[in-house]
Amino acid sequence: MLSFKEGLLDKTARSRGASTLRAGLIAGALLSGTGLATSAQAEEKVITAVMHSGLRVIDPVITTAHIVRNHAYMLYDVLIAVDENFTPQPQMASWAVSDDKLTYTFTLRDGLLFHDGAAVTAADAEASLKRWGVKDSGGQLIFDVTDTLTATDEKTLVWTLKEPYPPLIDTLAKQSALPPFIMPASVAATPATESISSFIGSGPFKFVEDEYQPGVSVTYEKFDEYVPREEPASWMAGGKVVYVDKVKWVTMPDSQTSINALLSGEVDYMEQVPVDLLPILESSDEVVSELRDPLGYQSIGRMNFLYPPFDDVKIRKAAMMAISQQDIMGTLVGNPDYYKICGAVFGCGTPLEDETGAETLINGGDVEAAKKLLAESDYDGTPVVLMQPTDVPSISAQPIVAAQALRDAGFTVDMQPMDWQTLVGRRASQSKPSEGGWNIFFTNWGVPEINSPLINPMLNGRGNDAWFGWPTDDALEALRKDFIKAETLDEQVAVAKQIQAHAMDVVNYIPVGQYLVPQARSTKIVDMLPSPVPVFWNVKKED
Amino acid sequence: MLGYILKRLLAVVPVITFVAIFVFLLLRLTPGDPAAILAGDAATPAQLEKIRTSLGLNDPLLVQFGTWIGQLFRGDLGISLISNIPVSDMVGQRIWPTINIALMTIILSVLLAVPMGVIAAWKHRTWADYAVMSFSVLGFSVPVFVIGYIFIQVFSIELRWLPVQGYTPPTEDFGKFLSKAILPCLTLATIYVALIARMTRASMLEVLGEDYVRTARAKGVSETLVLFRHALRNAAVPILTIIGTGFALLISGVVVTESVFNIPGIGRLTVDAILARDYPVIQAMILLTSAIYVFINLMIDVAYSIIDPRIRY
After folding, report:
1. Is the pLDDT of residue A9 over 50?
2. What transmembrane ranges does the database entry give (chain B) (predicted)?
3. Mutate which of B262, B263, B275, B279 to test chain A, going by most A C-beta atoms within 10 A?
4. Are residues B139 and B239 in the same domain?
5. DSSP classification of residue B204
6. Which CATH number covers residue A487?
């Protein structure tokens, strides 16, 4: 590497002529650095996107982090994908179901290639699905009833079940939290608890390994041999046609810097714009802010069912009654254009949306009723340990507002500020709240991650095997089984209604509102698809 | 002198050993779980346990420490728990932006601050002195991110002379490197110029009252020679200390400036690793920082004896 000292202070620079020449060269280079001069790179269509987080993990099975899922959609493809109507569509494969609904036959379409040139085979799909099934909760349910999953030839995969499992196709098509991406069989042989180290997929973009800096930037280039489907693109389904040469994801820890970079034309797209910074963008004719993810995020409060006071359903109900979604969303987001009051555990705007039992939440809370209920309960003033993350803006306001609501209702609240990663570690602790455990915390979920009883992590009543908070709820488990048996959307909606009512009745968790995150792009970027996952196919970059 | 340097270099061993043990234990006592961060929000406790085991986090502390020390002796900093790539590769990617920005900042600061401090002392209690001191107070008082934002607004958004953010290695495109480095270096230099100018002024004021300065002037030596040969050289020891420690601070990472200008340096690497509880990366960064401090302090001590031959070790 040429050091700065070598670059600036070499002997030739001591003569006046050389100095003048150098000054000219530097000035020229400065201009090129600001984009005012033309360069060879200008001919290459590159989209530079500021993503919500840095990519550090490359394995879409080992983690549910959104950035890793988004990365995987660039690099990999899926057998079946969901479209904007929440309908599964063939992507890499078409499928047929036997009359007894016990055998699913998947046929890979023609022209599928991995980035190293190898053909995608049914054996690759088999290995990938088996690895995914170890980790994904929906996949685990399918494998619980799986008899065999076998590649019968290069293009045919046969999945036989011991009993019918109607949501199988929906589960394979889901876009969150862990979609079943197809990898080469050799890569999928990696144990699901270990991270893969390969970058070979069969998706519309290839990974540029030399330019990868974990947490800083990642570059994808168009995979020329990718054969898009002929149908128009819709969410994760349809033809993934790539119109640019490269897409570069960068991470900027400071939102103001991202906005400045967008305004100056250094970046083309910003995945998440803080609502309070939107007015800055409105001053520019060269930047557009918009909502491209129509579902957004559900913010939730989760209580610990193992210890007092929230091991008592009456006390959990009192806590829920005290809370007002309006107060929390108003504080968190502010601008009502970017949040929804929504009491549905499966999120608003989804096929299973229902708000039964969430009346106090969505109507401003009822502190008086909460006080009354708390007085009738066995609550003895035990402090409620509320964990408050201070370093993540999207989840730091909820605990503060909720703490005051709980105090107003008569709870003693011990709000403990900490960084998010400390919270993440501590919420896994089953110790008593007074000994390093906890009573309640808040987090957010993308709505596609909670829009079905089969994937919503909180709606699991398996005690110690459930998500943090560990409710033991046989009735909930029975309802989930009913949901699995439901064969039509109407039947699913009917069961989901019961789950909603039950979840609110036992206060499985407290949905505290749904918020939307605006995105921003340069006006040179056109035809970006609306989707809960930011996708870079079909996008064009104009000169 | 050579013996002294060798002795000082040997002293690095216990320092680094102490730092290694301290950091290792401190990290294990800090709440947080790399497995939980790796697995994401939806992971169940059972899945987390499996990941912890596969990462070796369930091994006894002594076993974990032994593994790490063994790797260090082989010159291996380990593998990042989160990114699953060698820590040495990560550090290698991120150290050059920091070194280049630090070098450029410190050179710029010295070139501006030392003459400013000398002039302020020479023109003591005149408008020049007040101007330098006012600038110093301002440089200390205004937070670095505010200065950065002001520079960006003026030079990048309004005038469009320079890019807002980013880093290009000088080996790849020297012009781009310069254009992207100017604003962060100017921003950082504001503080260091204030610091060094103030220290230079104070040191110079002390020596300008000395007999040998008066004698030099009485002999008719030009004022420039008096200031820069006689006075500055004798005032240089504290100035050198402040420059050296400033450089060490810059090298060990300036996370706010790196964030404001989106520079992928080791400051951000360290903070990201701490937030993710990526133990091998944190351990490597703290060891590296300690080594940098020890080395720079040694360089400062050596420089003392070169500037002031009366200092002997």
Report:
1. no
2. 9-27, 99-122, 134-157, 177-197, 235-261, 281-307
3. B262
4. yes
5. H
6. 3.10.105.10
